[in-house]
Write a structure and sequence with these properties.
about 500 residues; 22 strands; globular
Length: about 500
């Protein structure tokens, strides 16, 4: 079995304790093992990051840009091997894994470009002979905690902007999927990132949580994951001057109005709901349909779902991959079972897939549920699996009300041919991301990303907006001391 090393202080190191990483397509045999660090190792990582920041913040932005561009090139050169590892540890299809790999390179390139630009504004000053401007500066050592569902692109989304701005990082990948993040760290290291600027920490959360979260040198934490963990981190930071950027849960809805192109809407909803087996924060998990087209749309939707091919991610024929772990599979099946107990009807799916090549994996058939109400738990709570609930409503106003009747506010979509209603929906949907006639998923690197309500915090990710999290703003006034104008 393959043994991985972690990056700390510019060196690749091992430990005496290990954690096995399993393939969710067949959990019988581990695919690799990773170091299980102790608290003292985490503290050492912060020691390295503190020293790395002192160097990196003074490094020319053009040098930072070159290193990040070179790292992007290395990721593209290694794309096949990286994608194979993403599939092996996460389960997603090779096509999805390769897309994630190339998008990670896009993040590095995009922020390499921004690193070359000055972050600031020239301001007028009421005082004569003064020139005043703002400038953005790095904030220091940032803790990056990434999830298992997008194990490469999420670390790239977080690390690229904070490194471009001159910060240092301690990076904790998900224990279930650490290998992908190690590929990103290796590309940056091989591209010439100075020692200590990026340090990777792997281990059992219960054993290292205190050292990871309570180090006094942390100035910011960026986290993607569940609301329960995110809120626990937020409470832990309540009396500390530490920034928190949280991308948390979602219960994303797509609205299908009576005038929509129904076959196109069905294809888009299925792509958004069942890509990566529904394990995306922006996955569609609720469909709100105007009553006149409810039966026809539901028929088209179920027919489209039943074309999906469940199987291991390394099979080119697979279009729906396993869930990431036995725990996640069992949780999704429990959610489906509870929905049925509460009156929901299974139109397709609704069970584990345990036949043939799926016998030893974490497979759940793609599921569509009808006869749900706004009070049904599965309509309100995040499932994070291949499950879609459908609800009929009477009109546009009721559709918007159903979308907004949620604790979450990450993404929503509307399908309509009416431009006025499309714009009205964009105005009224209480979500950070709104799509019209397209999927709730698929937001590119330059597009600000983040949700409202319980879906996240005020700091957005992606685009230039993320720099509000990873930089601080300084205002500088200079008295130029111009002499009095004299006549020639």
């Amino acid at each position: 079995m393959r043994t991985e090393e972690i990056l700390s202080g510019g060196e690749w190191v091992r430990t005496g304790e290990w954690i096995d990483v399993h393939d969710p397509a067949d959990v019988r045999t581990p695919v690799a093992r990773i170091p299980a660090l102790a608290a003292k190792d985490v503290t050492r990582a912060y020691d390295h990051a503190e020293r790395g920041f002192a160097v990196w913040k003074r490094t020319s932005p053009f040098v930072r840009a070159r290193i990040m561009t070179d790292a992007a090139r290395l990721i593209r050169d290694r794309a096949d091997a990286i994608a194979a590892d993403v599939t092996a540890e996460n389960g997603k299809t090779l096509a999805e894994a390769r897309g994630e790999t190339l998008k990670a390179a896009d993040f590095l390139e995009y922020y390499a470009g921004l690193a070359r630009q000055g972050y600031g504004t020239l301001l007028h000053d009421v005082r004569p002979n003064h020139r005043t401007h703002t400038q953005r500066e790095p904030i220091g050592v940032i803790l990056v905690i990434s999830p298992w569902n997008d194990p490469l692109i999420t670390p790239a989304r977080k690390l690229a902007p904070l490194l471009a701005a001159g910060n240092a990082a301690v990076f904790k990948p998900a224990t279930e999927t650490p290998i992908s993040g190690l590929h990103l760290a290796r590309a940056l290291h091989d591209a010439g990132l100075p020692a200590g600027v990026l340090n990777v920490v792997t281990g059992r959360t219960a054993e290292i949580e205190e050292a990871l979260l309570d180090d006094p040198r942390i100035v910011g934490i960026t986290f993607t994951g569940s609301n329960s963990v995110g809120n626990r981190i937020r409470r832990r930071l309540a009396d500390r001057n530490v920034r928190f950027q949280g991308e948390l849960g979602g219960k994303n809805a797509s609205v299908v109005l009576a005038d929509a192109d129904l076959p196109a809407a069905a294809k888009a909803v299925v792509a958004a709901a069942f890509g990566q087996a529904g394990q995306r924060c922006t996955a569609t998990s609720r469909v709100v349909v105007e009553r006149p087209v409810y039966e026809e749309f539901t028929r088209l939707l179920v027919a489209e779902v039943e074309t999906l091919k469940v199987g291991p991610g390394d099979d080119p024929a697979t279009t729906l991959c396993p869930l990431s772990s036995p725990r996640q599979r069992d949780a999704v099946l429990a959610d489906i079972g509870r929905a049925v107990e509460q009156g929901a009807t299974v139109l397709t799916g609704g069970r584990a897939d345990t036949e043939g090549e799926c016998a030893h994996g974490c497979y759940v058939r793609p599921t569509v549920l009808a006869d749900v109400t706004p009070e049904t738990a599965i309509w309100r709570e995040e499932v994070f699996g291949p499950v879609l609930a459908v609800l009929a409503v009477d009109d546009f106003a009721s559709a918007v009300e159903a979308v907004n009747d949620s604790d979450f506010g990450l993404a929503a979509a509307v399908f309509t041919r009416d431009l006025a209603r499309a714009h009205r929906f964009a105005d009224e949907a209480e979500c950070g991301q709104v799509a019209v006639n397209t999927t709730t998923t698929g937001w590119d690197v330059h597009l600000p990303f983040g949700g409202f309500r319980d879906s996240g915090t005020a700091y957005k990710e992606q685009g230039e907006e993320v720099l509000r999290f990873s930089t601080r703003l300084k205002t500088v006034a200079v008295n130029l001391g111009f002499p009095e104008q004299t006549r020639g």
